[in-house]
Amino acid sequence: MLYIGLLSALICSLCTFVNAVYRDEAFNVDWQLSTIGDYRCIVPDYANENQLIILSDHSQSETLVTYINETNGDVLLRYAVPFKMSDAMLVSDSHQLILKGDGDNNKKYSTIDLDTGLILEDSGKDLAQTSDFSFKTSCAASGYKIENIDQKTRLKLMDNTMGLPIFDVELPDTFTEVNYLSTDYSQILQFIVSNGDSHYTYFNYTDGGKNLTATWNRDESLVDIVDSAFCDLKDPYIDTIRKELAEEKNIDDVITAYIFRVKTNFNRIRKYLKKNQYSPGRVITAILKENELMGNINEEKAYKRDLKFGLAKLLIVATKNGRIAALHVSQQGNIMWNIRTGMSNIISIDYEPLTDELIVIDEKGSFIIFTSINEHMPPTLKKEGSFKLSTNSIITKAKKLDDSHNSYFVSLENGESQIVGVDNTQIVNTSNYFLTTHNEKEIRGHIVSEGNKLVNTWGITLNENEKLVAFASRSEDPVVNVGNVLGNRTVLYKYLYPNLVSYATINENDRNLYINLIDTITGELLHSQKHSNEKVDIDHPINLVFGENWFIYSYFSAEPIPEQRLTVVELYESLEANTKASDPNVDYNPLKGNINKPEVISRSYFFPEIIKDLKLTSTKFSITSKAIIIKLANEQITFIPKFVLNARSKEENNMSDDDKKEFMASPYISSIPINDNFIISHQRELIMSANSKLVSSPTNLESTSIICEIGKDVFCTRIYPSGQFDVMSPSFEKFQLFGTIFIVIVIVYYLRPTVANKKLKILWLIKD
Ligand SMILES: *[C@@H]1O[C@H](CO)[C@@H](O)[C@H](O)[C@H]1NC(C)=O
Ligand SMILES: *[C@@H]1O[C@H](CO)[C@@H](O)[C@H](O)[C@H]1NC(C)=O
Ligand SMILES: *[C@@H]1O[C@H](CO)[C@@H](O)[C@H](O)[C@H]1NC(C)=O
Ligand SMILES: *[C@@H]1O[C@H](CO)[C@@H](O)[C@H](O)[C@H]1NC(C)=O
Ligand SMILES: *[C@@H]1O[C@H](CO)[C@@H](O)[C@H](O)[C@H]1NC(C)=O
Ligand SMILES: *[C@@H]1O[C@H](CO)[C@@H](O)[C@H](O)[C@H]1NC(C)=O
């Protein structure tokens, strides 16, 4: 008894050391690359010392205004103004910036108030009519001379009266242009130069140009990102083991193979002992350290862990103007390499891990294949060429068809579609390729026949006043569970027919929204639903995502009440529990048309913010419940786990006891709240463009999915739709746990002989 008391006291005393630490991962695992674009104008911010204001092009008709910290080049604030500028003039006393129009607009002016970021009403009109207004640019750097001495470029600044040099400083080798220069003509010289390749370097010289006190560099080349691909970084340790296993597999004789394994393992132990100088103390310390039981987790260890868990990835982005770059996902988006491909108007980039090939395609149908993708150096070129396009049209969309062959299904601008391949041999196995294309007016089914020809199979043409507004095909993730287990232990079977697409159309006359579900093999309509008692706002985005046996769509309803709606539709074999409409003995063949239709249940929710885009997360095995990533109109990103949007949920009063027992069951609440904890972009300011999109990649941790937003800015984070069930919390006190186990073993060793002794004494009726 005494020992047990002692033991529990000991354990409890250890327990008190276990303190739960809530590790806030915000700004720790997520990162943002804020690209400004090419600098059109740089002016000092007179209201705030050590800040610069940079103007750059944002879109066809917008200018981006960026405030940066002059000391380190960090972005402090950005906003877009709806005016495309060609030049600017700083009015320092009123802290305003007058923008001059671009192109045809070059007689127009617009004034930004730099304190509020607002465009002043009618300011341009007044200015143009004021006779004494003369525009004087604030964007040009002047008063300096560039000289080339001994193959070094030098920047010189002369004294106006005497003609003597005040400053004479060396410029980087890559110098092409001075973009900004500010000086007091005696001690201080600050300037920004560019290298003609969207890299900008800042210098702050003091002591008359003798002392370089600050310098920074910004890479602005990654604007207009059109596509991206993820590439898992390889764990070198796993590589050696894989090699050994492959070698062992090649040995036919079992005994030789066994000897091989023993030998390699023995060698490994010997190496390990040698490394620790054959000292048992060192070995134990090393083991403890390796298992993070001692010492802090340093950067190297953290990186090893990221590699093991598949969190270390490269996000390879391709920009419209032909650049590809690798961003390190687990290291704050560091640019590992950044190269020009020589292409223009890239439309797609794909990475194939099996062959370690990166294939980049441009809109004219040229392709480049790169190989040996890693984080240390730019990839090497493997092959270059052009697809044989049947017409002289340009590609609008390219979809990779299979893993091993580089064959693509491309849609051309003239409305045609085609299958093209890197090798012009028989590319795909014709018998099992069905493809669906769509545009605003029609949806078409195709089958691939001999010689990679596309043959039309079916088509749906919309009525004259109807428009296709959203389209989604069923995700190809593996099916983990064929049914939902209800609270009373019965099963509701999911409808798992794979060849499905759903699409949304709007009737522009009465603004009714129709949602249809079709079979992609036959084009047969399987389900249709209509929102006829409300009018949909056509100007707001309508989004659709398709998961396993459900799809979710969002739309903005203008009447009767303006409200953002989110609707979930779930497909079941039958809505009756334990009933399966399909018969396992029947050979279902979509070509024979004997596919069962699903039974459908649907629920609508209100959402408090306007939704711009939806995307589903992907995880390695699809066991984790999916999350719906939502891009809001205010450029924030949030997510809802799928189980919150449940088509079978009931109001709390209607829920039976059995209903409440169902896994993840929650009552129906018509309006989904936005919780601050679910805003994954935190208080970041993300600048997006019309083509920005969300991408998702699985990791080796089933719970964790990587989400990135690409386009103008790049933003990446990790999300855990069902919590981090497969990760030990950082506060988990491994040392205490192992310590307790160790003490328990010691006590048991001591206790056993004592108890045996006591038993023996009892047998002999000896009293203590
Ligand atoms: C600018 O950067 C410097 C150095 O990192 C920092 O000390 C300063 O607080 C920053 N200024 C602003 C306004 O963030
Ligand atoms: C430039 O260097 C001088 C001297 O160190 C310093 O006073 C000034 O604040 C610096 N300017 C910026 C923008 O870092
Ligand atoms: C350069 O300037 C910094 C800041 O003004 C000062 O601390 C440093 O001593 C100067 N270095 C030289 C070599 O003058
Ligand atoms: C096409 O698929 C069938 C069945 O899956 C297979 O037997 C055949 O070898 C494949 N043909 C090619 C060219 O891969
Ligand atoms: C189990 O629950 C479902 C849904 O609540 C109901 O339809 C079904 O009849 C129940 N089955 C049994 C055997 O109680
Ligand atoms: C709850 O039950 C009431 C009465 O049976 C019914 O009118 C209502 O539609 C039900 N609500 C839900 C969400 O099922």
Essential attributes:
mainly beta; single chain; binds 2-acetamido-2-deoxy-beta-D-glucopyranose; signal; 5-stranded antiparallel beta sheet; 4-stranded antiparallel beta sheet; Thrombin, subunit H; ER membrane protein complex subunit 1; 768 residues; 15% helix; transmembrane helix
Task: Write a concise synopsis of the structure shown.
The protein is mainly beta and 768 residues long. Helix content is 15%, strand content 39%. Strand 10 and strand 11 (152-158) form a beta hairpin.
Topology (elements, then pairings):
Blueprint: H1 2-15, E1 31-33, E2 39-44, E3 51-59, E4 62-69, E5 75-81, E6 85-91, E7 96-101, E8 109-113, E9 118-119, H2 123-129, E10 144-149, E11 152-158, E12 165-170, E13 177-183, E14 189-194, E15 199-206, E16 211-219, E17 225-232, H3 236-250, H4 254-275, H5 280-290, H6 299-308, E18 313-319, E19 323-328, E20 334-340, E21 346-352, E22 357-362, E23 366-371, E24 380-386, E25 395-400, E26 407-412, E27 417-421, E28 434-438, E29 442-449, E30 453-461, E31 466-473, E32 483-485, E33 491-493, E34 500-507, E35 512-519, E36 525-531, E37 535-536, E38 543-546, E39 550-559, E40 563-572, E41 599-607, E42 611-616, E43 627-632, E44 637-641, H7 657-661, E45 693-698, E46 705-710, E47 714-719, H8 734-763
Antiparallel strand pairs: 1-47, 2-3, 3-4, 4-5, 6-7, 7-8, 8-9, 10-11, 11-12, 13-14, 14-15, 15-16, 17-18, 18-19, 19-20, 21-22, 22-23, 23-24, 25-26, 26-27, 28-29, 29-30, 31-34, 32-33, 34-35, 35-36, 37-39, 38-39, 39-40, 40-41, 42-43, 43-44, 45-46, 46-47
Helix pairs in contact: 1-8
This protein binds 2-acetamido-2-deoxy-beta-D-glucopyranose (6 copies).
One 2-acetamido-2-deoxy-beta-D-glucopyranose is lined by residues 69, 71-72, 76.
